[in-house]
Write a structure and sequence with these properties.
- This protein has 69 residues and is an all-alpha fold.
- Helix content is 58%, strand content 0%.
- It has three helices and no strands.
- It starts with a helix and ends in a 16-residue tail after the last helix.
């Protein structure tokens, strides 16, 4: 994993400038998490970004087991 991998994801979500981009990222992360054939590199990159985007780097899941904060 290198810096380009992270910047690629950030660019894909429009630098998270809009709230909707964060929600799309959250939805996509949940889909990666639930996929048994996930691409591990993509999952790791997205998880690191997810931790940085969360309030106080605290990840919360709802009753359905999906990430929501």
């Amino acid at each position: 994993i290198n810096r380009k991998d992270f910047f690629k994801v950030v660019k894909e979500y429009n630098n998270f400038n809009e709230k909707e981009e964060y929600y799309r990222f959250r939805k996509d992360w949940n889909e990666l998490y639930e996929n048994p054939e996930l691409k591990k590199k993509d999952f790791v990159i997205n998880t690191i970004l997810l931790l940085k985007l969360c309030s106080n780097s605290i990840v919360r899941f709802n009753q359905q087991g999906l990430f929501n904060q």
